[in-house]
Design goal:
Layout (H helix, E strand, L loop, with lengths): L2 H6 L5 H10 L6 H13 L3 E4 L6 H12 L3 E5 L6 H4 L1 E3 L1 H13 L5 H8 L5 E3 L1 H4 L10 E5 L6 H13 L1 E4 L3 E4 L5 E6 L7 H4 L3 E4 L5 H11 L5 H14 L10 H13 L7 H11 L3 H7 L2 H16 L7
Length: 315
């Protein structure tokens, strides 16, 4: 088997999935690796819900990288329509073609219509792109933050996710020769309809425990000293127990650790925490709750736990 063939071959078991993700610097737990395997093997879309910053979007990116597949991303937002998600006609080019036909005296309207509504005038958007054949294998289609889109858009997705086909009135039905690997994410700002969820495998991506978060930090920020990594993870784990508007995600943990390194810190201290809370917390009300005496109190707890080999320990 050639290296290219190995890269494009789907993993055989849960351990192989975990290893595949790890090679792309993604540290997963076994439950996530299991549902990824089932999604790949059954050809079913994978619906990932969880708080922002826990690594949902990253799953699609690392699968694309690890499997050597093209990544096609549809970023959802309020007002997303078919023209932005599926296809639209290149009207300026069509108008030029019509003017040229008029200038050359072309009279066959049916032939002109067939011409301007052919694929060379079609602008393919992410969902249509994902249905097209690819020499490297079916692409990875990331439908990101579906909860930001309007509910009618979900109804359209039902056809796409059920049959992996799209109907264009002027061209007919386009069906994928091989279904794409579909990853759908949601931050749960609203509930996604059950009809769409039934077409997917579901997994809730939660915050990692301290041990896995330390491992993530070792992989994604290898320059962070061990003591600082333990204290950073322990501090973040304590913050997630507080009543904050937006709890820090894994991305914020990595950013904070790297920011502390830029300030030449090898361990946490009250001044460093207060000076860098804006890297970790994204709302002023949350910062105001933690900075100062509360941060110092949390740091004392963290120092004790790390010293005793508790939450902040690598054991």
């Amino acid at each position: 088997m050639t290296p290219d063939t190995e890269e494009h071959t789907l993993p055989e078991d849960v351990d192989a999935v975990a290893e595949l993700l790890r090679k792309a610097d993604y540290v997963s737990d076994r439950s996530l690796a299991t549902v990824v395997l089932l999604s790949l093997r059954l050809g079913r879309p994978l619906f990932l819900e969880g708080e922002a910053g826990v690594g949902k979007t990253e799953i699609a990116k690392v699968l694309s990288q690890a499997l050597g597949r093209r990544l096609i991303r549809l970023q959802c937002y309020e007002g997303l329509d078919l023209g932005s998600a599926v296809y639209e006609w290149n009207y300026p080019r069509q108008m030029v073609e019509i003017r040229l036909a008029e200038a050359t005296g072309q009279q066959d309207r049916e032939a002109l219509t067939d011409n301007i509504f052919s694929e060379r005038f079609l602008i393919e958007r992410p969902l249509l792109q994902a249905l097209k054949p690819d020499p490297a294998g079916a692409p990875v289609l990331l439908i990101d933050e579906l909860d930001r889109a309007d509910e009618p858009f979900e109804a359209f997705l039902l056809e796409v996710l059920s049959d992996f086909q799209i109907t264009i009135p002027e061209l007919g039905t386009i069906q994928a020769p091989e279904p794409p690997i579909v990853i759908i994410t949601s931050n749960r700002t609203r509930e996604i309809h059950d009809a769409l969820k039934r077409r997917c495998l579901y997994h809730w991506v939660g915050y990692p425990d301290a041990e896995r978060e330390r491992e993530i930090l070792r992989v994604r920020a290898p320059g962070v000293p061990d003591k600082l990594a333990r204290e950073v993870v322990a501090f973040v784990q304590h913050l997630r127990e507080r009543d904050l508007f937006k709890l820090p995600g894994i991305a914020e943990t990595i950013d904070w650790a790297e920011a502390l390194i830029q300030l030449n810190k090898v361990a946490l201290d009250p001044a460093a925490i207060d000076d860098t809370l804006g890297v970790l917390l994204k709302y002023q009300d949350d910062i105001a709750k933690i900075e100062g005496s509360e941060a110092a109190r949390l740091l004392e707890e963290v120092k004790r736990e790390v010293a005793l080999g508790g939450t902040g320990s690598s054991t």
